[in-house]
Amino acid sequence: MKAVVGEVLPCAAMVLVEGCIIGLTIMASTAMARGMSPFVFVVYTNALGSIILLPFSFFYTGIIEESLFTIPFLLRVFFLGFIGITIAQNLAFVGLSYSSPIVACGMANQIPALTFILGIVLRKARFDWRRSGSKARLIGTLISLGGAVSITLYKGPTIRNHSSPSLSAAPPRLLVFSSPHENWVLGCLLFAASSVTLTIWNFVQVGTVKMCSQVMKIISFYSLFGTVQSTLLAFFLERDPNAWRLHLNFELLIIV
């Protein structure tokens, strides 16, 4: 019984996490459709995460003799924050502002395929034509990439006409599944760039964990670095001071 539970729990946790990600993606899309800047959204969400994670990481791991403040470690977490938050998250949320949560979830599924390809290129993964497992991974990669191309190039027919009188007279919806300034191809390209960046981030993160076993502190520090970098980027790209104002509304709920 314990063995069965041990096998089921990780899968159930993964399904739960994916469900939460989908829900948060839909709510983030709604916030941006209502006018929230994607750059400001990235700053506030990661700033809140850093405030929570930093004290918790030291409380969780306690005092360990392993030194964190070494130049190689700091450079790695700085780079993790740069590619994982400053680049990847900003690309993803700007892409979300141009497309929809459906595109976001579809393009995010390319990360395993891209990881497989990059692993072969970097010789981190082995590929043998004679093994059925290698063939299955190749077929899965091709199907996944084919789906991404289909999402990018074929949008499909309109289900509901946004210009219909009944829809225009309807009250504002709680959740929004499309962007008011939609650019499907641009959104997909930004998501693709974000997926490539996250693939590189995964490999760098694996090397960092091998260097330092304190995973919670790695997450805390790269979240802090990413927050600072994203703040500087947002100050440069978001020129409207009103974009930084928070009110007790739906946008604040999404950030929390």
Key terms:
mainly alpha; 10 helices; globular; membrane; transmembrane; transmembrane helix; WAT1-related protein
Q: How do the helices and strands line up, and which of them pair or pack?
A:
Layout: H1 2-33, H2 38-61, H3 71-98, H4 101-108, H5 110-121, H6 132-153, H7 165-168, H8 184-211, H9 215-237, H10 250-255
Pfam families: EamA
Keywords: Membrane, Transmembrane, Transmembrane helix
Domain EamA: 13-151
Structural class by sheet pairing and helices: mainly alpha
Q: How would you spell out the order of helices and strands?
A: HHHHHHHHHH
Number of strands: 0
Number of helical elements: 10
Largest sheet: none
Mean pLDDT figure: 76
Tell me the distance between the termini. 38 Å
Beta-strand portion reads under 5%
Radius of gyration: 20 Å
The backbone outline, from C-alpha atoms, is globular
pLDDT < 50 stretches: 158-177
Protein name: WAT1-related protein
GO molecular function: transmembrane transporter activity
Domain EamA: 13-151
Keywords: Membrane, Transmembrane, Transmembrane helix
Describe it:
The structure is a single chain. The protein has 256 residues and is mainly α. The protein has a domain at 37-61 and 74-155 and 176-240. Helices cover 73% and strands 0% of the residues. The chain contains 10 helices and no strands. The protein has helices at 2-33, 38-61, 71-98, 101-108, 110-121, 132-153, 165-168, 184-211, 215-237, 250-255. Helix 3 (71-98) packs antiparallel against helix 8 (184-211), helix 4 (101-108) packs across helix 8 (184-211) and helix 6 (132-153) packs antiparallel against helix 8 (184-211). The longest helix is centred in the first third of the chain and has 32 residues, at 2-33. The two termini are 38 Å apart. Mean pLDDT is 76; it is low at 158-177. This is WAT1-related protein. It comes from Sesamum latifolium. Belongs to the drug/metabolite transporter (DMT) superfamily. Plant drug/metabolite exporter (P-DME) (TC 2.A.7.4) family.
